[in-house]
C-alpha cells in the first residue's frame, strides 16, 4: 500500500440533521394467489396496513443509520383522516423521526394519501394504485415561514 493512507477511519463522526420533505402515505397491501382477470372478483389471502411513501420510508431507514437526527416535513389533513394521520405519525415516531413541523391542511373532502397495493404470490409482482385524496403538496410559503427558520435556528 505504498503511497496510500491506510489509517483507520475515526469512529467519531459528526452528527447531521436531516429534514426530509415529501409525502407520507397509508399503504394497504392486498396479497392474492394470482392476479385476477379483468372484471372479476377474488378474495385477498392477506391484507396489511403500513406507513408508506418514498419520503416516509426514507426517513425511517435514515434514522436507523445513526447519522444524526431525522425530521419528516410534509402535510396531513387537519381532520385526522379517520385515525390515519396518527397511524402514520406514530409509525415515524417509532423510528425516532421528528414530525412536529408538519402542516395541517383544512378541508372536509381531504384525506390521508393512500396506496392500494395488489401483490401476487404467483409472480411476486405488485401493482400500486395511489391517491393524494385531495391533499395538496407542502407549499413553499409554509416551508419558508415555519420550517426553514426553525431548522436554521436549531441546527446552525
TrEMBL record:
Xref: Gene3D superfamilies: 3.40.1190.20
Pfam families: PfkB
InterPro entries linked to this entry: Ketohexokinase-related, PfkB_dom, Ribokinase-like
Domain Carbohydrate kinase PfkB: from-to ranges: 26-133
SUPFAM superfamilies: Ribokinase-like
Name of the protein: Carbohydrate kinase PfkB domain-containing protein
